[in-house]
From TrEMBL:
Residues 6-128 form the SnoaL-like domain. Residues 141-183 are annotated as: Disordered. This is Nuclear transport factor 2 family protein. It comes from the Bacteria. Pfam families: SnoaL_4. It comes from Saccharopolyspora terrae. Gene3D superfamilies: 3.10.450.50.
Length: 192
């Protein structure tokens, strides 16, 4: 039976993965950056290097995309103390800015991450994006959904923007708490 620390670690890791996908798809790279340790590395296929370099690349590459969509599986997590190997399957779609003139791309990916718990926070220390398949996404429907549908977008115009703000606030609050020496939930549960 898993211990309370193991359950909390799995929950925190899963939350980081979800926050990353949400932040990238909503165009909030600052929030996505909170999913990595400052010295993390990332091999993202088109780019490989430090996390700071990755987000410089995302700034440039992201400007060429109208939208992205990440659909994540539940992660498979192998915990080893303060380190975890994590694999997450991802269906990914990207749409170029050119208004549909170029085909969107649909990919089957896996994120293979090394998470580390530092200062009571589980974050990505190393990421490798593995591509299993890709193809041009199906063409746009001949009869589009009516304008009565609530449409997603990036930034503050997205209907889920309040969630993005809440996630950012929670991350800042947790970082401030850790900086102030609070042991956090796990520390309170394990200390006597």
């Amino acid at each position: 039976m898993p211990t309370l620390d193991e359950l909390v670690a799995r929950t925190e890791i899963t939350d980081v993965l979800g926050r990353y996908a949400h932040a990238i798809d909503r165009g909030d790279r600052e929030l996505a950056r909170t999913c990595y340790h400052p010295d993390a590395t990332d091999d993202h296929g088109r780019f490989s290097g430090t996390v700071d370099e990755l987000f410089e690349f995302f700034e440039t590459y992201g400007a060429t995309l109208e939208s992205t969509f990440h659909f994540l599986s539940p992660p498979t997590i192998a915990l080893h103390g303060e380190r975890a190997e994590v694999e997450t399957y991802c269906l990914y779609r990207r749409q170029p800015v050119d208004g549909g003139a170029s085909a969107a791309v649909f990919q089957g990916l896996r994120y293979f991450d090394i998470f580390e718990r530092r200062a009571d926070r589980w974050l990505i220390a190393e990421r490798t994006v593995i591509i299993d398949w890709e193809h041009a996404a199906p063409p746009l429907p001949t009869t589009a959904s009516p304008p009565t549908w609530v449409r997603g977008s990036r930034g503050e115009t997205d209907p889920a923007a309040p969630l993005t703000r809440s996630l950012s606030t929670a991350v800042r609050r947790r970082a401030d708490s850790a900086d102030a020496g609070d042991q956090g939930f796990i520390g309170r549960c394990t200390s006597s």
